[in-house]
Amino acid sequence: MCGIVGVTGTNKTVSILIDGLKRLEYRGYDSAGIYVNDQAGKDFLIKRAGRITNLEAALTPEVQGMAGIGHTRWATHGEPNQANAHPQYSADKRFYLVHNGVIENYKDLKEEYLSDVKFKSQTDTEVIVQLVDKFVTAYDMDTKAALLKVLRLISRDSSYAFALMDKEQPDTLYVAKNKSPLLVGIGKGYNMVGSDALSMLNETNEFMEIEDHELVIVQPDHVTIESFDNEEKHRDTFTVDMDPNAADKGAYPFYMLKEIDEQPAVMRRLVQEYLGANGKPQIDEKLLAQMQEADHLYIVGAGTSYHAGLVGARLFERFAQIPTSVHISSEFAYEQPLLSKKPFFIFLSQSGETADSREVLVHVNENKWPSLTITNVDKSTLSREATHTLLLYAGPEIAVASTKAYTAQVAVEAILAKALGEYLGLEAAQKFDVKDELAKVANGMQALVDSKDEIEAIASHALSKPRNAFYIGRGLDWSVSLEAALKLKEISYVQAEGFASGELKHGTIALIEKNTPVIGIITQSRTAGLTRSNLEETAARGANILTIASRHLAKEDDSIILPDVDEMISPLLSVVPAQLLAYYTSLGKGLDVDKPRNLAKSVTVQ
Ligand code: M6R
Protein backbone atom coordinates (compact mmCIF):
# COMPACT_ATOMS: atom_id res chain seq x y z
CA MET A 1 0.00 0.00 0.00
CA CYS A 2 1.35 3.36 -1.07
CA GLY A 3 4.02 3.68 -3.73
CA ILE A 4 7.32 5.52 -3.36
CA VAL A 5 9.77 6.79 -5.96
CA GLY A 6 12.86 8.94 -5.71
CA VAL A 7 15.62 10.03 -8.06
CA THR A 8 18.79 12.08 -7.84
CA GLY A 9 21.21 13.38 -10.47
CA THR A 10 19.13 14.10 -13.56
CA ASN A 11 17.17 16.96 -15.06
CA LYS A 12 14.55 14.36 -16.06
CA THR A 13 13.56 14.15 -12.38
CA VAL A 14 9.95 15.25 -12.76
CA SER A 15 9.15 12.92 -15.65
CA ILE A 16 10.88 9.99 -13.93
CA LEU A 17 8.87 10.61 -10.76
CA ILE A 18 5.55 10.90 -12.60
CA ASP A 19 6.23 7.83 -14.75
CA GLY A 20 7.24 5.85 -11.67
CA LEU A 21 4.15 6.96 -9.76
CA LYS A 22 1.89 5.95 -12.63
CA ARG A 23 3.44 2.50 -12.53
CA LEU A 24 2.95 2.36 -8.78
CA GLU A 25 -0.61 3.64 -8.80
CA TYR A 26 -1.86 0.06 -8.28
CA ARG A 27 -0.45 0.34 -4.73
CA GLY A 28 -2.83 3.13 -3.75
CA TYR A 29 -4.62 5.91 -5.54
CA ASP A 30 -6.33 8.28 -3.20
CA SER A 31 -3.80 11.14 -3.38
CA ALA A 32 -0.32 11.80 -4.73
CA GLY A 33 2.53 14.27 -4.50
CA ILE A 34 6.12 15.12 -5.40
CA TYR A 35 8.91 17.23 -3.96
CA VAL A 36 11.68 18.32 -6.37
CA ASN A 37 14.77 20.41 -5.86
CA ASP A 38 16.75 22.02 -8.71
CA GLN A 39 19.92 22.29 -6.57
CA ALA A 40 20.20 25.96 -7.55
CA GLY A 41 17.97 27.34 -4.84
CA LYS A 42 14.50 26.45 -6.09
CA ASP A 43 12.29 23.65 -4.87
CA PHE A 44 8.67 22.63 -5.41
CA LEU A 45 6.13 20.66 -3.42
CA ILE A 46 3.01 19.69 -5.34
CA LYS A 47 0.29 17.47 -3.86
CA ARG A 48 -3.23 16.65 -4.92
CA ALA A 49 -6.10 14.52 -3.65
CA GLY A 50 -7.21 11.82 -6.11
CA ARG A 51 -5.36 10.13 -8.92
CA ILE A 52 -1.91 10.84 -10.40
CA THR A 53 -3.64 12.60 -13.30
CA ASN A 54 -4.74 15.32 -10.84
CA LEU A 55 -1.15 15.74 -9.72
CA GLU A 56 0.09 15.82 -13.30
CA ALA A 57 -2.46 18.48 -14.21
CA ALA A 58 -1.12 20.67 -11.38
CA LEU A 59 2.47 20.67 -12.71
CA THR A 60 3.57 23.85 -14.45
CA PRO A 61 6.59 24.00 -16.82
CA GLU A 62 8.72 25.66 -14.16
CA VAL A 63 8.42 22.59 -11.90
CA GLN A 64 11.78 20.99 -12.70
CA GLY A 65 14.61 19.66 -10.61
CA MET A 66 17.72 17.53 -10.34
CA ALA A 67 16.40 15.34 -7.51
CA GLY A 68 13.05 14.53 -5.97
CA ILE A 69 10.73 12.12 -4.24
CA GLY A 70 7.14 11.11 -5.04
CA HIS A 71 4.30 9.18 -3.45
CA THR A 72 0.94 7.66 -4.32
CA ARG A 73 -1.15 7.00 -1.24
CA TRP A 74 -3.56 4.49 0.25
CA ALA A 75 -4.71 6.26 3.38
CA THR A 76 -4.02 4.69 6.77
CA HIS A 77 -4.05 7.78 9.01
CA GLY A 78 -6.34 10.64 8.11
CA GLU A 79 -8.66 11.04 5.18
CA PRO A 80 -7.33 11.15 1.63
CA ASN A 81 -7.05 14.92 1.17
CA GLN A 82 -4.24 17.22 0.03
CA ALA A 83 -2.97 17.95 3.55
CA ASN A 84 -2.55 14.27 4.33
CA ALA A 85 -0.96 13.49 0.96
CA HIS A 86 2.80 12.91 0.92
CA PRO A 87 5.48 14.25 0.86
CA GLN A 88 4.98 15.40 4.44
CA TYR A 89 7.37 18.17 5.52
CA SER A 90 8.85 19.78 8.60
CA ALA A 91 7.56 23.08 10.01
CA ASP A 92 10.63 24.95 8.68
CA LYS A 93 10.19 23.36 5.22
CA ARG A 94 13.68 21.90 5.31
CA PHE A 95 12.85 18.17 5.34
CA TYR A 96 10.49 16.26 3.02
CA LEU A 97 9.46 12.64 3.54
CA VAL A 98 7.51 9.98 1.67
CA HIS A 99 6.44 6.88 3.57
CA ASN A 100 4.78 3.56 2.93
CA GLY A 101 3.66 1.68 6.06
CA VAL A 102 2.39 2.36 9.54
CA ILE A 103 4.31 3.81 12.51
CA GLU A 104 2.64 2.06 15.41
CA ASN A 105 4.08 4.29 18.16
CA TYR A 106 3.65 7.65 16.38
CA LYS A 107 1.33 9.02 19.07
CA ASP A 108 3.87 8.28 21.82
CA LEU A 109 6.67 9.92 19.80
CA LYS A 110 4.52 12.96 19.13
CA GLU A 111 3.64 13.32 22.79
CA GLU A 112 7.17 12.81 24.04
CA TYR A 113 9.12 15.00 21.62
CA LEU A 114 6.81 17.23 19.63
CA SER A 115 4.28 18.77 21.99
CA ASP A 116 5.40 22.24 20.85
CA VAL A 117 5.01 21.54 17.11
CA LYS A 118 1.93 22.54 15.14
CA PHE A 119 0.87 19.71 12.84
CA LYS A 120 -0.62 20.24 9.39
CA SER A 121 -1.83 16.69 8.79
CA GLN A 122 -3.25 13.69 10.63
CA THR A 123 -0.54 11.37 9.35
CA ASP A 124 1.96 9.27 11.27
CA THR A 125 4.45 10.29 8.58
CA GLU A 126 4.45 13.96 9.60
CA VAL A 127 5.54 12.92 13.10
CA ILE A 128 8.64 11.28 11.62
CA VAL A 129 9.66 14.23 9.46
CA GLN A 130 9.05 16.72 12.28
CA LEU A 131 11.10 14.52 14.58
CA VAL A 132 14.08 14.49 12.20
CA ASP A 133 13.85 18.26 12.03
CA LYS A 134 13.61 18.52 15.81
CA PHE A 135 16.76 16.46 16.35
CA VAL A 136 18.66 18.47 13.72
CA THR A 137 17.62 21.90 14.93
CA ALA A 138 17.18 21.46 18.68
CA TYR A 139 19.90 18.88 19.35
CA ASP A 140 22.30 20.10 16.69
CA MET A 141 22.62 16.72 15.00
CA ASP A 142 23.43 16.20 11.32
CA THR A 143 20.67 14.74 9.14
CA LYS A 144 22.06 11.23 9.11
CA ALA A 145 22.45 11.08 12.88
CA ALA A 146 18.98 12.57 13.38
CA LEU A 147 17.37 10.08 11.05
CA LEU A 148 19.20 7.19 12.69
CA LYS A 149 17.98 8.36 16.07
CA VAL A 150 14.42 8.48 14.76
CA LEU A 151 14.73 5.04 13.17
CA ARG A 152 15.86 3.63 16.50
CA LEU A 153 12.86 5.21 18.23
CA ILE A 154 10.34 3.67 15.85
CA SER A 155 8.83 0.55 17.42
CA ARG A 156 9.80 -2.81 15.88
CA ASP A 157 6.20 -3.66 15.03
CA SER A 158 5.99 -0.60 12.76
CA SER A 159 6.38 -0.88 9.03
CA TYR A 160 8.01 1.70 6.82
CA ALA A 161 9.71 2.43 3.57
CA PHE A 162 11.06 5.99 3.77
CA ALA A 163 12.70 8.38 1.34
CA LEU A 164 13.78 11.64 2.98
CA MET A 165 15.19 14.80 1.41
CA ASP A 166 17.00 17.63 3.19
CA LYS A 167 16.85 20.95 1.34
CA GLU A 168 20.41 21.65 2.50
CA GLN A 169 21.76 18.48 0.81
CA PRO A 170 19.56 18.49 -2.25
CA ASP A 171 21.40 15.73 -4.11
CA THR A 172 20.93 13.14 -1.36
CA LEU A 173 18.09 10.70 -0.67
CA TYR A 174 18.08 9.14 2.79
CA VAL A 175 16.33 5.81 2.57
CA ALA A 176 15.34 3.06 5.02
CA LYS A 177 12.84 0.24 5.29
CA ASN A 178 11.27 -2.22 7.69
CA LYS A 179 8.77 -4.79 6.37
CA SER A 180 7.66 -2.51 3.49
CA PRO A 181 9.30 -3.04 0.09
CA LEU A 182 11.90 -0.66 -1.38
CA LEU A 183 14.65 -1.10 -3.98
CA VAL A 184 17.49 1.05 -5.26
CA GLY A 185 17.72 1.46 -9.05
CA ILE A 186 21.18 2.11 -10.53
CA GLY A 187 20.99 4.54 -13.45
CA LYS A 188 23.71 5.98 -15.68
CA GLY A 189 24.87 9.11 -13.85
CA TYR A 190 21.86 9.09 -11.60
CA ASN A 191 20.26 6.76 -9.08
CA MET A 192 16.74 5.96 -7.98
CA VAL A 193 14.60 4.30 -5.37
CA GLY A 194 11.19 2.72 -5.89
CA SER A 195 8.66 0.43 -4.25
CA ASP A 196 9.13 -2.08 -7.04
CA ALA A 197 11.40 -2.71 -10.01
CA LEU A 198 8.68 -1.88 -12.53
CA SER A 199 8.52 1.72 -11.31
CA MET A 200 12.15 2.19 -12.43
CA LEU A 201 12.30 -0.20 -15.37
CA ASN A 202 12.06 2.55 -17.98
CA GLU A 203 15.36 3.91 -16.64
CA THR A 204 17.32 0.83 -15.60
CA ASN A 205 17.19 -2.91 -15.12
CA GLU A 206 19.96 -2.93 -12.51
CA PHE A 207 18.82 -2.95 -8.90
CA MET A 208 20.08 -3.27 -5.37
CA GLU A 209 18.14 -4.76 -2.48
CA ILE A 210 17.63 -2.91 0.77
CA GLU A 211 17.26 -5.00 3.89
CA ASP A 212 15.23 -4.14 6.94
CA HIS A 213 17.01 -1.86 9.42
CA GLU A 214 19.58 -0.40 7.08
CA LEU A 215 20.23 3.24 6.32
CA VAL A 216 20.84 3.79 2.62
CA ILE A 217 22.23 7.04 1.26
CA VAL A 218 21.54 7.50 -2.43
CA GLN A 219 23.51 10.11 -4.38
CA PRO A 220 23.85 10.62 -8.15
CA ASP A 221 27.03 8.56 -8.44
CA HIS A 222 27.08 6.62 -5.22
CA VAL A 223 24.96 4.40 -2.98
CA THR A 224 26.05 3.71 0.60
CA ILE A 225 24.44 1.05 2.77
CA GLU A 226 25.00 1.02 6.52
CA SER A 227 23.61 -0.80 9.50
CA PHE A 228 22.08 1.30 12.25
CA ASP A 229 25.46 0.89 13.99
CA ASN A 230 27.25 2.70 11.16
CA GLU A 231 28.80 -0.46 9.78
CA GLU A 232 29.15 -0.11 6.00
CA LYS A 233 27.82 -3.04 3.95
CA HIS A 234 28.62 -4.23 0.47
CA ARG A 235 25.67 -5.23 -1.71
CA ASP A 236 25.79 -6.75 -5.20
CA THR A 237 23.38 -5.50 -7.79
CA PHE A 238 20.99 -7.75 -9.72
CA THR A 239 19.16 -7.38 -12.99
CA VAL A 240 15.50 -7.95 -13.72
CA ASP A 241 14.63 -9.46 -17.04
CA MET A 242 11.30 -7.84 -17.76
CA ASP A 243 9.99 -5.85 -20.70
CA PRO A 244 8.87 -2.43 -19.37
CA ASN A 245 6.08 -2.49 -21.96
CA ALA A 246 4.68 -5.69 -20.44
CA ALA A 247 2.90 -3.40 -18.01
CA ASP A 248 1.18 -1.36 -20.74
CA LYS A 249 -2.54 -1.64 -21.35
CA GLY A 250 -2.22 -1.59 -25.13
CA ALA A 251 -5.62 -1.26 -26.79
CA TYR A 252 -7.51 -2.68 -23.81
CA PRO A 253 -9.90 -0.41 -21.90
CA PHE A 254 -8.79 -1.95 -18.59
CA TYR A 255 -5.85 -4.03 -17.37
CA MET A 256 -8.22 -6.60 -15.92
CA LEU A 257 -9.55 -7.58 -19.33
CA LYS A 258 -6.02 -7.75 -20.74
CA GLU A 259 -4.93 -9.93 -17.84
CA ILE A 260 -7.93 -12.27 -18.23
CA ASP A 261 -7.10 -12.59 -21.92
CA GLU A 262 -3.44 -13.36 -21.16
CA GLN A 263 -4.29 -16.51 -19.21
CA PRO A 264 -3.97 -19.03 -22.08
CA ALA A 265 -0.47 -17.64 -22.82
CA VAL A 266 0.47 -17.84 -19.12
CA MET A 267 -0.52 -21.53 -19.06
CA ARG A 268 1.69 -22.17 -22.11
CA ARG A 269 4.58 -20.28 -20.55
CA LEU A 270 4.32 -22.39 -17.38
CA VAL A 271 4.42 -25.56 -19.45
CA GLN A 272 7.58 -24.23 -21.12
CA GLU A 273 9.21 -23.17 -17.86
CA TYR A 274 8.38 -26.17 -15.70
CA LEU A 275 7.74 -29.18 -17.92
CA GLY A 276 10.34 -30.86 -20.09
CA ALA A 277 9.70 -32.16 -23.59
CA ASN A 278 8.59 -35.49 -22.08
CA GLY A 279 6.21 -33.74 -19.67
CA LYS A 280 8.44 -34.40 -16.66
CA PRO A 281 8.34 -31.54 -14.13
CA GLN A 282 11.61 -29.61 -13.86
CA ILE A 283 11.55 -28.80 -10.17
CA ASP A 284 14.63 -28.38 -7.99
CA GLU A 285 15.30 -31.72 -6.26
CA LYS A 286 16.32 -29.99 -3.04
CA LEU A 287 12.81 -28.56 -2.81
CA LEU A 288 11.20 -31.94 -3.46
CA ALA A 289 13.49 -33.63 -0.94
CA GLN A 290 12.54 -31.12 1.76
CA MET A 291 8.84 -31.40 0.95
CA GLN A 292 8.84 -35.18 1.03
CA GLU A 293 10.26 -35.10 4.56
CA ALA A 294 7.28 -33.06 5.74
CA ASP A 295 4.39 -34.70 7.54
CA HIS A 296 2.07 -31.78 6.82
CA LEU A 297 2.00 -28.93 4.29
CA TYR A 298 0.74 -25.55 5.47
CA ILE A 299 -0.37 -23.22 2.70
CA VAL A 300 -0.55 -19.56 3.72
CA GLY A 301 -2.02 -16.67 1.71
CA ALA A 302 -4.51 -13.81 1.63
CA GLY A 303 -7.54 -13.06 -0.56
CA THR A 304 -7.24 -14.60 -3.99
CA SER A 305 -3.96 -16.29 -3.08
CA TYR A 306 -5.70 -17.99 -0.15
CA HIS A 307 -8.36 -19.21 -2.59
CA ALA A 308 -5.67 -20.60 -4.90
CA GLY A 309 -4.28 -22.37 -1.82
CA LEU A 310 -7.64 -24.09 -1.23
CA VAL A 311 -7.34 -25.69 -4.65
CA GLY A 312 -3.65 -26.48 -4.07
CA ALA A 313 -4.42 -28.37 -0.86
CA ARG A 314 -6.62 -30.81 -2.75
CA LEU A 315 -3.91 -31.23 -5.42
CA PHE A 316 -1.16 -31.98 -2.86
CA GLU A 317 -3.36 -34.41 -0.99
CA ARG A 318 -4.45 -36.20 -4.15
CA PHE A 319 -1.15 -36.44 -6.00
CA ALA A 320 1.45 -36.35 -3.21
CA GLN A 321 -0.70 -37.79 -0.41
CA ILE A 322 0.60 -35.36 2.19
CA PRO A 323 -1.99 -33.85 4.54
CA THR A 324 -2.33 -30.18 3.66
CA SER A 325 -4.15 -27.32 5.33
CA VAL A 326 -4.71 -23.79 4.11
CA HIS A 327 -4.55 -20.69 6.27
CA ILE A 328 -5.46 -17.04 5.93
CA SER A 329 -2.19 -15.29 6.69
CA SER A 330 -3.68 -12.54 8.88
CA GLU A 331 -5.24 -15.23 11.08
CA PHE A 332 -2.28 -17.59 11.17
CA ALA A 333 0.04 -14.79 12.25
CA TYR A 334 -1.87 -14.26 15.48
CA GLU A 335 -3.70 -17.56 16.17
CA GLN A 336 -1.20 -20.19 15.18
CA PRO A 337 -2.78 -23.65 15.00
CA LEU A 338 -1.10 -26.59 16.67
CA LEU A 339 1.51 -27.64 14.12
CA SER A 340 2.66 -31.10 13.09
CA LYS A 341 6.16 -32.33 13.93
CA LYS A 342 7.66 -31.70 10.50
CA PRO A 343 5.84 -28.80 8.89
CA PHE A 344 6.61 -27.39 5.44
CA PHE A 345 5.19 -23.98 4.56
CA ILE A 346 4.01 -22.81 1.15
CA PHE A 347 3.41 -19.08 0.77
CA LEU A 348 1.22 -18.00 -2.11
CA SER A 349 1.46 -14.34 -3.06
CA GLN A 350 1.17 -12.59 -6.39
CA SER A 351 3.13 -9.58 -5.17
CA GLY A 352 5.42 -11.37 -2.74
CA GLU A 353 4.95 -8.36 -0.45
CA THR A 354 1.74 -8.99 1.51
CA ALA A 355 2.50 -7.90 5.07
CA ASP A 356 0.27 -10.49 6.74
CA SER A 357 1.96 -13.35 4.89
CA ARG A 358 5.38 -11.92 5.60
CA GLU A 359 4.59 -11.83 9.30
CA VAL A 360 4.03 -15.59 9.16
CA LEU A 361 7.23 -16.15 7.19
CA VAL A 362 9.29 -14.25 9.76
CA HIS A 363 7.94 -16.63 12.41
CA VAL A 364 8.60 -19.66 10.17
CA ASN A 365 12.21 -18.55 9.70
CA GLU A 366 12.69 -17.93 13.41
CA ASN A 367 11.76 -21.58 13.92
CA LYS A 368 13.94 -22.70 11.00
CA TRP A 369 11.05 -24.47 9.27
CA PRO A 370 11.55 -24.97 5.53
CA SER A 371 9.39 -22.92 3.17
CA LEU A 372 8.53 -22.18 -0.43
CA THR A 373 7.12 -18.98 -1.88
CA ILE A 374 5.11 -19.19 -5.08
CA THR A 375 5.03 -15.64 -6.43
CA ASN A 376 4.86 -13.53 -9.54
CA VAL A 377 7.59 -11.15 -8.44
CA ASP A 378 11.17 -12.34 -8.52
CA LYS A 379 13.28 -11.02 -5.59
CA SER A 380 10.18 -9.85 -3.75
CA THR A 381 10.39 -9.98 0.05
CA LEU A 382 8.58 -13.31 0.41
CA SER A 383 10.73 -14.78 -2.35
CA ARG A 384 13.99 -13.59 -0.81
CA GLU A 385 13.13 -14.75 2.66
CA ALA A 386 11.71 -18.21 1.94
CA THR A 387 13.94 -21.25 1.52
CA HIS A 388 12.72 -21.82 -2.06
CA THR A 389 10.88 -19.84 -4.74
CA LEU A 390 8.79 -20.87 -7.72
CA LEU A 391 7.82 -18.07 -10.07
CA LEU A 392 4.43 -17.64 -11.72
CA TYR A 393 5.75 -16.18 -15.00
CA ALA A 394 2.42 -14.38 -15.45
CA GLY A 395 3.92 -10.97 -16.35
CA PRO A 396 3.00 -7.88 -14.33
CA GLU A 397 -0.51 -7.99 -12.91
CA ILE A 398 -1.72 -4.41 -12.54
CA ALA A 399 -5.51 -4.60 -12.03
CA VAL A 400 -6.37 -4.73 -8.35
CA ALA A 401 -8.57 -7.77 -9.00
CA SER A 402 -6.23 -10.70 -9.37
CA THR A 403 -6.97 -13.01 -12.31
CA LYS A 404 -3.97 -14.46 -14.14
CA ALA A 405 -2.02 -14.78 -10.89
CA TYR A 406 -4.76 -17.03 -9.48
CA THR A 407 -4.73 -19.38 -12.46
CA ALA A 408 -0.91 -19.35 -12.56
CA GLN A 409 -0.80 -20.21 -8.83
CA VAL A 410 -3.16 -23.15 -9.33
CA ALA A 411 -1.18 -24.37 -12.35
CA VAL A 412 2.14 -24.17 -10.48
CA GLU A 413 0.59 -26.05 -7.56
CA ALA A 414 -0.61 -28.75 -9.97
CA ILE A 415 2.88 -29.08 -11.47
CA LEU A 416 4.49 -29.19 -8.03
CA ALA A 417 1.98 -31.74 -6.71
CA LYS A 418 2.69 -33.94 -9.72
CA ALA A 419 6.47 -33.52 -9.26
CA LEU A 420 6.30 -34.35 -5.57
CA GLY A 421 3.99 -37.33 -6.11
CA GLU A 422 6.32 -38.73 -8.77
CA TYR A 423 9.31 -38.14 -6.53
CA LEU A 424 7.49 -40.19 -3.90
CA GLY A 425 6.73 -42.86 -6.52
CA LEU A 426 2.95 -42.47 -6.30
CA GLU A 427 0.79 -43.90 -9.03
CA ALA A 428 -1.84 -41.15 -9.05
CA ALA A 429 0.88 -38.59 -9.83
CA GLN A 430 2.44 -40.75 -12.53
CA LYS A 431 -0.92 -41.06 -14.26
CA PHE A 432 -1.64 -37.32 -14.11
CA ASP A 433 -0.43 -35.93 -17.44
CA VAL A 434 -0.10 -32.35 -16.28
CA LYS A 435 1.52 -31.17 -19.51
CA ASP A 436 -1.31 -32.43 -21.64
CA GLU A 437 -3.92 -31.15 -19.18
CA LEU A 438 -2.42 -27.65 -19.09
CA ALA A 439 -2.37 -27.60 -22.89
CA LYS A 440 -6.09 -28.45 -22.81
CA VAL A 441 -6.62 -25.76 -20.17
CA ALA A 442 -4.89 -23.16 -22.38
CA ASN A 443 -7.16 -24.05 -25.31
CA GLY A 444 -10.21 -24.13 -23.07
CA MET A 445 -9.39 -20.70 -21.62
CA GLN A 446 -8.99 -19.36 -25.14
CA ALA A 447 -12.45 -20.64 -26.08
CA LEU A 448 -13.91 -18.98 -22.98
CA VAL A 449 -12.26 -15.60 -23.50
CA ASP A 450 -13.35 -15.76 -27.13
CA SER A 451 -16.97 -16.06 -26.02
CA LYS A 452 -16.91 -12.83 -24.02
CA ASP A 453 -20.02 -11.45 -25.70
CA GLU A 454 -22.21 -14.22 -24.30
CA ILE A 455 -20.78 -13.71 -20.83
CA GLU A 456 -21.27 -9.95 -21.09
CA ALA A 457 -24.93 -10.54 -21.99
CA ILE A 458 -25.40 -12.79 -18.94
CA ALA A 459 -23.76 -10.19 -16.70
CA SER A 460 -25.94 -7.38 -17.94
CA HIS A 461 -29.12 -9.46 -17.72
CA ALA A 462 -28.57 -11.14 -14.36
CA LEU A 463 -26.07 -9.18 -12.31
CA SER A 464 -26.42 -5.50 -13.14
CA LYS A 465 -29.36 -4.75 -10.80
CA PRO A 466 -29.37 -7.13 -7.77
CA ARG A 467 -27.78 -6.07 -4.53
CA ASN A 468 -26.74 -9.64 -3.59
CA ALA A 469 -25.53 -12.71 -5.45
CA PHE A 470 -24.36 -16.17 -4.46
CA TYR A 471 -21.92 -18.60 -6.01
CA ILE A 472 -22.37 -22.18 -4.83
CA GLY A 473 -20.58 -25.50 -5.36
CA ARG A 474 -19.06 -28.44 -3.56
CA GLY A 475 -15.42 -29.42 -3.08
CA LEU A 476 -13.23 -27.70 -5.66
CA ASP A 477 -16.33 -25.95 -7.00
CA TRP A 478 -16.83 -24.41 -3.57
CA SER A 479 -13.22 -23.17 -3.57
CA VAL A 480 -13.85 -21.48 -6.91
CA SER A 481 -17.16 -20.09 -5.61
CA LEU A 482 -15.22 -18.18 -2.95
CA GLU A 483 -12.89 -16.69 -5.55
CA ALA A 484 -15.76 -15.95 -7.95
CA ALA A 485 -17.67 -14.11 -5.23
CA LEU A 486 -14.59 -12.11 -4.22
CA LYS A 487 -14.11 -10.99 -7.83
CA LEU A 488 -17.71 -9.86 -8.12
CA LYS A 489 -17.83 -7.97 -4.84
CA GLU A 490 -14.47 -6.23 -5.06
CA ILE A 491 -15.01 -4.63 -8.45
CA SER A 492 -18.79 -4.37 -8.90
CA TYR A 493 -19.78 -3.82 -5.25
CA VAL A 494 -22.53 -6.48 -5.50
CA GLN A 495 -22.57 -8.16 -2.11
CA ALA A 496 -21.54 -11.61 -3.27
CA GLU A 497 -20.79 -14.72 -1.23
CA GLY A 498 -19.45 -18.15 -2.07
CA PHE A 499 -21.04 -21.09 -0.29
CA ALA A 500 -20.64 -24.82 0.03
CA SER A 501 -23.94 -25.64 -1.63
CA GLY A 502 -24.84 -28.19 1.05
CA GLU A 503 -24.65 -25.44 3.66
CA LEU A 504 -27.43 -23.34 2.11
CA LYS A 505 -30.18 -25.19 3.92
CA HIS A 506 -28.41 -24.60 7.20
CA GLY A 507 -29.10 -20.90 7.16
CA THR A 508 -28.15 -18.94 4.07
CA ILE A 509 -31.18 -19.95 2.01
CA ALA A 510 -33.16 -17.49 4.15
CA LEU A 511 -31.51 -14.72 2.12
CA ILE A 512 -32.95 -15.91 -1.20
CA GLU A 513 -35.57 -13.55 -2.59
CA LYS A 514 -37.23 -13.18 -5.96
CA ASN A 515 -34.53 -12.84 -8.63
CA THR A 516 -31.52 -13.23 -6.32
CA PRO A 517 -28.81 -14.57 -8.65
CA VAL A 518 -27.47 -17.96 -7.53
CA ILE A 519 -24.69 -19.25 -9.73
CA GLY A 520 -23.85 -22.94 -9.44
CA ILE A 521 -20.41 -24.24 -10.41
CA ILE A 522 -20.58 -27.86 -11.56
CA THR A 523 -17.35 -29.57 -12.57
CA GLN A 524 -17.12 -32.53 -10.17
CA SER A 525 -18.89 -35.79 -11.12
CA ARG A 526 -19.34 -36.90 -7.52
CA THR A 527 -21.23 -33.80 -6.47
CA ALA A 528 -22.79 -32.45 -9.67
CA GLY A 529 -26.23 -33.91 -8.94
CA LEU A 530 -26.21 -32.62 -5.38
CA THR A 531 -25.29 -29.09 -6.42
CA ARG A 532 -28.04 -29.15 -9.06
CA SER A 533 -30.57 -30.18 -6.37
CA ASN A 534 -29.38 -27.33 -4.16
CA LEU A 535 -29.81 -24.91 -7.06
CA GLU A 536 -33.37 -26.15 -7.57
CA GLU A 537 -34.10 -25.54 -3.90
CA THR A 538 -33.11 -21.90 -4.33
CA ALA A 539 -35.09 -21.63 -7.59
CA ALA A 540 -38.18 -22.86 -5.71
CA ARG A 541 -37.74 -19.81 -3.48
CA GLY A 542 -37.49 -17.35 -6.35
CA ALA A 543 -33.75 -17.34 -7.13
CA ASN A 544 -32.57 -16.63 -10.64
CA ILE A 545 -30.31 -19.62 -11.16
CA LEU A 546 -27.33 -19.72 -13.52
CA THR A 547 -24.91 -22.56 -14.09
CA ILE A 548 -21.27 -22.88 -15.09
CA ALA A 549 -20.82 -26.57 -15.91
CA SER A 550 -18.18 -28.78 -17.49
CA ARG A 551 -19.20 -30.25 -20.81
CA HIS A 552 -19.28 -33.86 -19.56
CA LEU A 553 -21.70 -32.86 -16.80
CA ALA A 554 -23.68 -30.27 -18.75
CA LYS A 555 -27.46 -30.11 -19.19
CA GLU A 556 -29.33 -28.38 -21.93
CA ASP A 557 -30.22 -25.26 -19.95
CA ASP A 558 -26.78 -24.58 -18.50
CA SER A 559 -25.71 -20.96 -18.87
CA ILE A 560 -21.98 -21.42 -19.55
CA ILE A 561 -20.35 -24.67 -20.69
CA LEU A 562 -16.68 -25.31 -19.91
CA PRO A 563 -14.42 -27.45 -22.08
CA ASP A 564 -13.49 -30.73 -20.37
CA VAL A 565 -10.22 -31.13 -18.47
CA ASP A 566 -9.16 -33.40 -15.60
CA GLU A 567 -11.61 -32.56 -12.80
CA MET A 568 -8.73 -31.89 -10.40
CA ILE A 569 -7.74 -28.79 -12.36
CA SER A 570 -11.22 -27.66 -13.42
CA PRO A 571 -10.85 -24.45 -11.30
CA LEU A 572 -8.48 -23.20 -14.00
CA LEU A 573 -11.45 -23.03 -16.35
CA SER A 574 -14.46 -22.47 -14.11
CA VAL A 575 -12.92 -19.30 -12.69
CA VAL A 576 -12.62 -17.62 -16.11
CA PRO A 577 -16.35 -16.97 -16.72
CA ALA A 578 -16.60 -15.76 -13.12
CA GLN A 579 -13.78 -13.26 -13.78
CA LEU A 580 -15.56 -12.08 -16.91
CA LEU A 581 -18.94 -11.84 -15.17
CA ALA A 582 -17.36 -9.62 -12.52
CA TYR A 583 -15.58 -7.53 -15.16
CA TYR A 584 -18.70 -6.89 -17.24
CA THR A 585 -20.88 -6.19 -14.20
CA SER A 586 -18.40 -3.55 -13.05
CA LEU A 587 -18.05 -2.15 -16.56
CA GLY A 588 -21.84 -2.02 -17.00
CA LYS A 589 -22.09 0.05 -13.82
CA GLY A 590 -19.52 2.49 -15.14
CA LEU A 591 -17.06 1.74 -12.35
CA ASP A 592 -13.28 1.96 -12.50
CA VAL A 593 -12.69 -1.76 -12.99
CA ASP A 594 -8.95 -1.65 -12.33
CA LYS A 595 -9.04 0.55 -9.27
CA PRO A 596 -12.03 -0.31 -7.11
CA ARG A 597 -12.83 1.93 -4.18
CA ASN A 598 -10.98 1.54 -0.89
CA LEU A 599 -8.54 -1.06 -2.24
CA ALA A 600 -4.92 -1.29 -3.32
CA LYS A 601 -3.14 -4.01 -5.21
CA SER A 602 -0.39 -4.74 -2.79
CA VAL A 603 -1.36 -4.88 0.88
CA THR A 604 1.84 -4.02 2.69
CA VAL A 605 0.28 -3.06 6.01
CA GLN A 606 -1.16 -5.55 8.48
O1 M6R B 1 -0.08 -10.21 -3.59
P1 M6R B 1 -0.87 -11.21 -2.85
O2 M6R B 1 -1.29 -12.37 -3.70
O3 M6R B 1 -0.23 -11.68 -1.58
O4 M6R B 1 -2.20 -10.46 -2.44
C1 M6R B 1 -3.16 -11.06 -1.63
C2 M6R B 1 -4.49 -10.35 -1.73
O5 M6R B 1 -4.39 -9.04 -1.28
C3 M6R B 1 -5.03 -10.34 -3.16
O6 M6R B 1 -5.11 -11.62 -3.68
C4 M6R B 1 -6.42 -9.69 -3.22
O7 M6R B 1 -7.35 -10.49 -2.54
C5 M6R B 1 -6.85 -9.49 -4.67
N1 M6R B 1 -6.93 -8.10 -4.94
C6 M6R B 1 -8.18 -10.03 -4.99
O8 M6R B 1 -8.48 -9.86 -6.32
From TrEMBL:
Q: Which organism is it from?
A: Limosilactobacillus alvi
Question: Which keywords does the record carry?
Answer: Aminotransferase, Cytoplasm, Glutamine amidotransferase, Repeat, Transferase
Gene that produces this protein: glmS
> A Gene Ontology MF term for this entry?
glutamine-fructose-6-phosphate transaminase (isomerizing) activity
Question: Under what name is this protein listed?
Answer: Glutamine--fructose-6-phosphate aminotransferase [isomerizing]
Lipoprotein found in the keyword field:
no
The UniProt record lists the keyword Cytoplasm: yes
Task: From the UniProt record, list the reaction(s) this protein catalyses.
Answer: D-fructose 6-phosphate + L-glutamine = D-glucosamine 6-phosphate + L-glutamate
Q: Where is the active site?
A: C2, K601
Q: How does it assemble?
A: Homodimer.
InterPro entries hit by this protein: GATase_2_dom, GFAT, GFAT_N, GlmS/AgaS_SIS, GlmS/FrlB_SIS, Ntn_hydrolases_N, SIS_dom, SIS_dom_sf
Query: What's this chain's function?
Result: Catalyzes the first step in hexosamine metabolism, converting fructose-6P into glucosamine-6P using glutamine as a nitrogen source.
Domain Glutamine amidotransferase type-2: where? 2-221
